[in-house]
Each structure stands twice: as C-alpha cells, then as structure tokens.
Amino acid sequence: MELVVDAAIVGAGVAGLSTALFLGRADRSAIVFDGGTTRIESVEEVREYLGFDGLPPQELLSRARAEVHRYGVEIKRQRVTSVTPRADGLFEVHHGHSVTMARTVVLATGLIDKLPPLSGVSKAWGRDLRVCPCFDGYEVRGKRFVVFGVPKRLVHMASWVWMWSRDVTVVSEHAFTDAELDRLRLLDIDVIADEVTGLVHSGERLEALSTRGGKSIACGAAWIAADMVAASDLAASLCDVDDMGLARIDSGGRTSRAGVFAVGNAADPAAHLAHASAAGTNVGPHVVMYLLEREIERRTTNQ
C-alpha cells in the first residue's frame, strides 16, 4: 500500500510555512518542499511585518521552520519539478528522483521580478535597487530617488514613491501621454528622456545610474518598475492562471482544479508578508474541509 500524505506544500516561504503550521496543528500529514531561496531572502531585513520588523529574513524563516517541525510537518530541501493529477483524485508530486503521493497540493511557489540585464543590477538588488516603497521606502525617505523600468508602470511607481521623497526623477525614453506628464508635473517629478544602461556603485552602495546618452544620474535610491511573473510553471500545468502565470483562486484559496490550492504571491502579486502569512491560515481550514469531504465520500462509497 502506497504512502499518501494529506498535503504537499510546494514552497517554503512565509505563505507555505503558515499553511504547514495550520495543517500540522490540524493533525494532518504534510510535507513542505523547499526549492531554494525565497523572494524575501533578497533583502537585508524584514519590514512592515508586525513583531518581526528589522529581523533578518533568514532568521524569520528559521523560526518558522522550527515551529512547523514541532507539529510533525516534514520539510524536504528539494524542488518539485512536476505534479501529475491521477484519476483517483490523488496527485503525484515529482521531486528529485522521487515521487510523493498527496491528497491535496498547496502552491506557495511565489513570484519573481523580471530584472533587466544591466551592469550593477544584481549587486544593488535587495539593497539600493527597490521595487516596493511600502516595504522599504521608510529607510531611504527624503533621499534622491531615480525611477526606471517598464514604461506601463513608470508613472504609478514614480507617483507612489513620491510619498517618501520630494526629489524624484524618472529616466525613460517612453513617450508619455499628456495625462501622464501632467500627473508627473503636478508632483514636480522630473523626466529625463534617456535609457538606463547600468548602476554605478561606490564600494558596496549605489551611487548613480548611467545612461545611453552618457549621463551619470546621482541617486540615494533607485526604484525599478519591473514586470512580475510566476516563479514556477506548476500552476499553469494544473489550473487556470492569469497573464503572469499566477493561480486564479477563490476566497478560500481554491483553484480551478479540485484539491489544488494556492497561497501568497503564487496567487496574489500584491501580497506582503502579513498577507502571505494570513493566506496560509485562511487556506488551511479549506484544505482540511476538502480532506474531510473526500473521506466521507470514500466511506459512503464503501458502505
């Protein structure tokens, strides 16, 4: 008789571990598959997460893993390569050279920011190159901001970061509409019609942005309006997804496929850490109820 776990949780960030904590305390058998570095680990400190503000993300995740372990949840340091639904309602979860059978699958695979292949980007990412002022705008408030990136998101990003600094410059060759330019002018946001070609550092810190036109634009912090995509194609292989490859879910985290759930940034690109944690707590009861209803169906059939 093959061993079947109640839940295979794919992803070991805050959303996945929060789900695991709930299921462990619900006395359900669960395995968390940790495929590697999470998005939060790219920053130096956790921000705007009550009770954990200023904590290194590795410490946050270490604490979370320890809490999950206390309730019998196993964490495997392996990447899930595919999930195959079976006719009997179970799921084959493929990882490494092994397969785990699961009654449910919870996708906590997150998303990634699509960064341009510019010199200096990787060095600045998570430190002086930022994407979310709600998360770490406070730490650079009042400094000179330079905004660049995907044209369709530039005006929104520039307007948003203006709340943390009155010295904001947009660098882009994009042909802004009159309405967009009016919005930027009202906030005294400068526009430089040029293209960013690299990030210039002085030691370990960002000093300026270089442009194709030969300019060196000094800045205290750079903000990139980046596209985001699903960090894994598992959702696309299992259920309905949006144009970013993120799972479409209902209020209980259910996807279009029975038995498959999604939490955190695997379904919501705007979810912050607190949202991700709450998503795990929210989806947990729905996973348990799904398991209960399946067991009742099985017993009814076998009467």
TrEMBL record:
Q: Does the entry feature the keyword Ribosomal protein, yes or no?
A: no
Does the UniProt entry include the keyword Oxidoreductase?
Answer: yes
Which Pfam families would you find in this protein's record?
A: Pyr_redox_2 (PF07992)
Any GO MF annotation of the entry: oxidoreductase activity
Question: Which residues belong to any copy of the FAD/NAD(P)-binding domain?
Answer: 6-277
The record's annotation in InterPro entries points to: FAD/NAD-bd_sf (IPR036188), FAD/NAD-binding_dom (IPR023753), Ferredoxin-NADP_redctase_2 (IPR050097)
Q: Which keywords has UniProt assigned to this entry?
A: Flavoprotein, Oxidoreductase
Mind telling me what this protein is named?
Answer: Thioredoxin reductase
